[in-house]
């Protein structure tokens, strides 16, 4: 058995990076001003979360009061008693003593919202808030905070170029890629970027293995170099083909943390648990039929997709990264081969 030192490559070591510039948080006054679509969506989501959190506190507090009354105890609920009831719910809420006698503060770690349960006088059972851990009202949604009029859209234009949602970002012409609550507002370079990133080495198996395992991070980190610090526009960046949806307002890093790929072929036994598993994260951005690139009609060619691919046969296993070929078709580009 031997390692594939020659490998297979359809990209001659290097492939032009396109769409390194996919940015979320590029917010637009027309969408995120006081009456903007994204602002309203963000506000609605925030209010929904707040109401849910208040309801969880009310339920826990009522249960704690009921428990005390069943034992003939009419004293105020303690933070410990409220914590005991909160722990029975699917939430990360912690109750502590408030600054005023009888008050209990409840803080939710997921949102950093803090509410106060009042138990004295006419306020018994009243819940106020939320505030954050510093006693301030929570920071508004990022879309509202970073609103800027950056898209150059002219609905009265006579040509598609001026009608389309283009934006200049760091002197790079970009287009809106996604614009919804699941993805946030993402822009993408309108043309192939003159950047090169080398993944794999034609005659270095260990280097290729390392690049395969770290491909998503390598490409995403390259994309992040296009964020211009201090401009107040781009919050994060990712490479095409990585996870497109947001988590806590930021792009998700590579979710595969362990090298646990294995298969049942005898020749591969010495390679088991040395490689990360394949994924299909590229599909949302670049699937040949349903990807966002195709939906927008963007002419993307010769581009890495930050998504790993493995094809195993009885005599060899090819490992690499998905990419858009020069003809626009998407497939795995192999730069690593394990053979009998």
Percentage of residues in helical conformation = 10-25%
Task: Supply the helix-strand structural class.
Answer: alpha+beta
Average of per-residue pLDDT values: 79
Number of helices: 8
N-to-C CA distance: 5 Å
Task: Characterize the overall form.
Answer: elongated
Strand content: 25-35%
Order of helices and strands: EEEHHHEEEEHHEEEEHEEEHHEEE
Uncertain ranges: 5-10, 26-33, 139-153
What order do the strands of the largest sheet run in, or round the barrel if closed?
Answer: 8-9-10-3-12
Radius of gyration: 26 Å
DSSP, total strands: 17
Q: Strand count, sense and closure of the main sheet? A: 5 strands, antiparallel
Q: What is the total number of structural domains?
A: 2
How would you characterize the overall build of this protein?
Helices cover 25% and strands 27% of the residues. With 340 residues, it is an alpha+beta fold. It has two domains: 215 residues, no CATH class; 86 residues. The strands form five sheets. A five-stranded antiparallel β-sheet has the order 8-9-10-3-12. A hairpin with a 3-residue loop joins strand 9 and strand 10. The longest helix is centred in the N-terminal third of the chain and has 34 residues.
């Amino acid at each position: 058995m031997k390692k594939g030192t020659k490998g297979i490559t359809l990209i001659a070591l290097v492939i032009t990076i396109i769409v390194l510039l996919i940015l979320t948080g590029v917010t637009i006054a027309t969408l995120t001003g006081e009456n903007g679509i994204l602002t309203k969506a963000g506000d609605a989501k925030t209010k929904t979360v707040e109401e849910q959190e208040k309801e969880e506190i009310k339920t826990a507090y009522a249960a704690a009061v009921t428990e005390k009354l069943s034992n003939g105890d009419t004293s105020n609920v303690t933070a410990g008693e409220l914590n005991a009831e909160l722990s029975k719910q699917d939430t990360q809420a912690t109750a502590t003593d408030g600054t005023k006698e009888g008050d209990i503060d409840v803080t939710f770690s997921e949102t950093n919202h803090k509410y106060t349960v009042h138990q004295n006088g006419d306020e018994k059972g009243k819940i106020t808030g939320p505030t954050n851990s510093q006693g301030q009202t929570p920071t508004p949604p990022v879309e509202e905070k970073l609103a800027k009029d950056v898209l150059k859209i002219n609905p009265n234009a006579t040509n598609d170029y001026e009608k389309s949602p283009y934006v200049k970002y760091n002197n790079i012409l970009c287009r809106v890629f996604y614009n919804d609550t699941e993805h946030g507002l993402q822009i993408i370079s309108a043309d192939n970027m003159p950047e090169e990133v080398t993944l794999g080495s034609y005659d270095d198996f260990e280097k290729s293995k390392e690049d395969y395992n770290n491909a998503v991070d390598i490409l995403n980190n390259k994309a992040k170099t296009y964020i211009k610090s201090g401009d107040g526009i781009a919050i994060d960046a990712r490479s095409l083909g990585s996870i497109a949806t947001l988590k806590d307002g930021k792009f998700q890093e590579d979710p595969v943390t362990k090298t646990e790929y294995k298969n049942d072929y005898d020749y591969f036994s010495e390679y088991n648990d040395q490689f990360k598993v394949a994924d299909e994260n590229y599909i949302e951005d670049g699937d040949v039929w349903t990807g966002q690139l195709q939906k927008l009609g963007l002419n993307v060619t010769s581009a890495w997709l930050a998504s790993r691919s493995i094809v195993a046969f009885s005599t060899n296993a090819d490992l690499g990264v998905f990419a858009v070929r020069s003809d626009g078709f998407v497939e795995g580009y192999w730069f690593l081969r394990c053979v009998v």
